[in-house]
Amino acid sequence: MGMATKATWTIADYIALDEHDGPRYELSEGELIVSPSPTFRHNQVKLRLAARLDEFATQHGLGFVTSETDFQLGSATVRRPDVAIILTAHFLAKYQSQIPIPIAPDLAFEVISASDRAADLLLKTGQYLSAGTAAVWLLYPEAREAHLYQQGATQPKVISASGRLESSFLPGWSLPLSEILPAA
After folding, report:
1. Which of 53, 48, 80 is nearest to 67 (CA)?
2. Under DSSP, is residue 103 helix (H, G, I), strand (E, B) or coil?
3. How far lies 147's CA from each of 73, 92, 124, 137, in Å?
4. Over the range 39-56, which residues count as b (16 or more CB within 10 Å of their CB) and which as e?
5. Three-state DSSP class for residue 138
6. Whole-number Cα distances in Å, 41 to 46, 69, 115, 143, 156
7. DSSP states of 66-97 as a string?
8. What would the pLDDT profile of 121-175 be if each residue is shown by its tens digit?
9. CB 3.0 to 4.6 Å from 73: which of 13, 77, 136, 137, for a disulfide?
10. What's the predicted TM-score (pTM) here?
């Protein structure tokens, strides 16, 4: 017989999980979700993006960039964006040691893998936006494009491989998508 799984998980249950050597998890409206191990390409895109964002945000005092950090997006939802920014105005020192951080990130970036399902991505994106995230980028390394979802917009903005990532929340930041996506 298999192990019985808990029907609904709480934030407290999630925090109590020990995942140091095991799978990585997220919590979606009380449902525990196992994240597959990322590919080399996924990690490459994530690291390039985080490095460039962090350099810009630090130089201009705009905020704090993090990777693979848990954010509480609702009473039973915790998401772990590949890369996220908390603007300086929203950052509290205690967040440096809190798990999960009890707010939504201001900007979130997800590197999409072939195994990700469209319905799951739309749910996750909606959770970020509902919790107060201003913009969510879904980066598709294989298609060599990015989809930008913003508060108040009904459709995502599609950015091609020759386009740039930009945000009104990071004035002056402009990153060519081709710089962070591996060559086809």
Report:
1. 80
2. coil
3. 21, 30, 14, 6
4. eeebebbbebbbebbbeb
5. strand
6. 9, 20, 14, 13, 24
7. ESS--EEEETTEEE--SEEEEEGGG--GGGGG
8. 999 999 999 999 999 999 999 899 999 999 988 899 999 999 999 998 899 999 9
9. 77
10. 0.87
- Is residue 23 scored above 80 in pLDDT? no
Statement: residue 27 has pLDDT above 80: no
DSSP state of 162: T
Distance in angstroms (rounded) separating the CA atoms of residues 45 and 109? 11
Distance, CA of 174 to CA of 21 (rounded, Å): 37
Beta strands 24-28 and 71-74, pairing class? unpaired
d(CA 127, CA 134): 12
DSSP state of 183: P
The torsion angles phi and psi of 123, rounded to 5 degrees, stand at -60, -50
Question: How far apart, in whole angstroms, are the C-alpha atoms of residue 33 and residue 25?
Answer: 5
